[in-house]
Design a protein that fits this description.
- Two copies of one chain form a homodimer.
- The first copy, chain A, is of the alpha/beta class.
- Chain A folds into two domains: about 70 residues, 5,6-Dimethylbenzimidazole Phosphoribosyltransferase, Chain: A, domain 1; about 270 residues, 3-Layer(aba) Sandwich (Rossmann fold).
- Helix content of chain A is about 50%, strand content about 10%.
- Chain A contains 15 helices and six strands.
- The first copy, chain A, has a six-stranded parallel sheet, with helices on both faces.
- In chain A, α12 links the parallel β5 and β6.
- The N and C termini of chain A lie far apart (about 65 Å).
- At the A-B interface, α3, α4, α5, α14 and α15 of A face α3, α4, α5, α14 and α15 of B.
Chain lengths: ~350, ~350
């Protein structure tokens, strides 16, 4: 818990002077005021994070956190739990969706085992942060102990520390892999929002009507049994959460602690970001939303976090794919701020013509 | 007219075999079916355009077509007409918004004078395709003669021909610059949709309520006076259109003729694309929508063209900025199709582990 508390205490507020200077430069560029919409806000916020109007998001990393879920015993997913471990190997081999989209975004992919129900070779080039082999079935009791929940968040912070120790980096994307993990994510949303599971449960990777009704019933049961306390984010994570979700919360807090902007992805990654911001409100200004999930619970979280996703391409995959794709737009926002000439700069060029 | 007719006659249908093979590969990739949403459709369509599942959008060009508008006499824009020519110089100097976003997208920017009310030095490195120095005021009579309208479309086709003569290219973005050009674009939408100007007129680069009401009244007057015939797209372009809009229509038809995917941008560019597709329905499969404009008329056009924009970042700029930014997503779609492993490929890798 000390590592978590120290990291939260170390999060610095953004540089308001750089923020105002960025907004003034954007206003004075030779184009109608506000005409580059959302990317102006992104550019100004990045300027405030880095304390400069010439931000370069050179080194980019996507961390895909993996974990298994006891709730799969209830038949809430179309895929068998073994797929979680298989996908970790696929991440390492470079053939998964996140590898392809991260390559496109010039980002490195790091996979992390927070709680996969498989024994990985210690030589496998991933972050080995297993807290336990999968969560417990939260429809029959708490998913994690409080200590395990804290440990998963601290593991995420450690990953940021270890990455930073290799050299500075400028943009972190968060991703997830965990068969069954829309169920804990949805339970987290219900716990914080007070909405019913029926209001916020989606079809995950493709459930039909009957399977959706079953998933809602399982989540409702878990919430009624565990009564997670929304005023205590670690209690929510422990009662109905997941280890990769805790890891993602740690990534967000860790990135904010290191002054690095961090992008959340879809439903699961945003559930982690929500826990992070409930624990550490100072982390929120470092957080950007990459992609709008088709999962209905996502909307609640984004409103709660006051985030507008950069993309809405009907992805429903996770892994960090939406975060990776959004990295290009974040980079474009830095170029807009730094490179589009102001009316004054154009006039100088005109005078020289 | 012969060049236009020949180009339209030469547009080939897409390769259905490649399209089906692409869809099958996407379905078999190691991820939930359909989970990469819109980019799967984009990837399959690009495969069908190029006749291969391994598309590389290496050489990318954004053509920004410029023209002036007689309708500016009616006070429909916040900016003076001189800005059109100034922005053409800014495009050449590389400091405009489109230069910055095209650099980011690894695309070349080519500016084209279709009808700017200024005499450019013939040495200025732009496409010199001036049909006349600005359109006539369409609230007092036709904006263009029928011959001028055809000439502007053929000029767009010539630009594609001249670019292709320099070497193959793989992706074309369309952009516009023309003070006052939301008015002709809106009139074009009203003409094709049968909707009133009040229904489809937006605030352009930032009109207040009074100025908006005036703009609607001016457009209504132009439509009532000219009675453009929606069954005759060249009549619509001539009566209420613009020269850069005709140029963009020519770019779309020309790109389709050369088998090159083409991205439309915001309101003005999409008005050009609408005229292109009304003239040449075979061009539509080559067309992609880059960005959702905040201008209300844009929605009608996209529905009519059955296009879903890749981005919605509240841009209201034009110049091709939304098209340029979408190029990265189109490129990501090609990598998704080619590089994400199928379940079979993953199993082979597993067996070798």
């Amino acid at each position: 818990m000390k590592r978590l508390e120290a990291c939260i205490a170390g999060i610095k507020p953004l540089d308001e002077t750089a923020f105002e200077a960025a907004r003034e430069r954007l206003r004075n560029q030779a184009r109608p005021a506000g005409s580059l919409g959302v990317l102006e806000e992104v550019g100004a916020r990045l300027a405030a994070i880095f304390g400069t109007l010439d931000v370069h998001l050179r080194k980019r990393i996507v961390v895909a956190c993996a974990g298994d879920h006891g709730i799969c015993e209830e038949g809430v997913s179309l895929f068998p739990p073994e797929v979680t471990a298989q996908m970790v190997y696929n991440f390492v081999q470079g053939g998964a969706s996140i590898n392809v989209l991260a390559r496109h975004a010039k980002a490195r992919v790091a996979a992390a085992d927070l709680g996969v129900d498989a024994a990985f070779d210690p030589e496998l080039p991933i972050f080995h942060k297993k807290v336990r082999r999968g969560t417990r079935n939260f429809s029959r009791g708490p998913a994690l102990t409080r200590e395990e929940a804290v440990r998963s968040i601290e593991a995420g912070i450690e990953i940021v520390e270890e990455l930073a120790a290799e050299g500075p980096f400028h943009l972190l994307g968060t991703g997830d892999m965990g068969i069954g993990n829309t169920s804990p994510s949805t339970a987290i949303i219900a716990a914080f929002s007070g909405l019913s599971a029926a209001d916020v449960t989606g079809r995950g990777t493709g459930l039909d009507d009957g399977a959706l009704a079953h998933k809602i019933e399982v989540i409702e049961r878990g919430l009624a049994l565990n009564r997670p306390d929304p005023a205590d984010p670690i209690d929510v994570l422990a009662k109905v959460g997941g280890l990769e979700i805790g890891g993602i919360a740690g990534l967000v807090i860790g990135a904010a602690g290191y002054g690095i902007p961090v992008i959340c992805d879809g439903l699961i990654s945003t559930a982690g970001a929500l826990i992070a911001c409930e624990l550490a409100p100072a982390a929120r200004p470092y957080l950007f939303a990459g992609h709008h999930s088709v999962e209905i619970g996502h909307r609640f979280m984004l409103e709660h976090l006051r985030l507008r996703p950069l993309l809405d391409l009907r992805f429903r995959l996770g892994e960090g794919t939406g975060a990776a794709l959004a990295m290009e737009l974040m980079d474009a926002a830095t170029r807009i701020l730094a490179e589009i000439k102001t009316f004054e700069e154009v006039a100088i060029a005109d005078a020289q013509r």
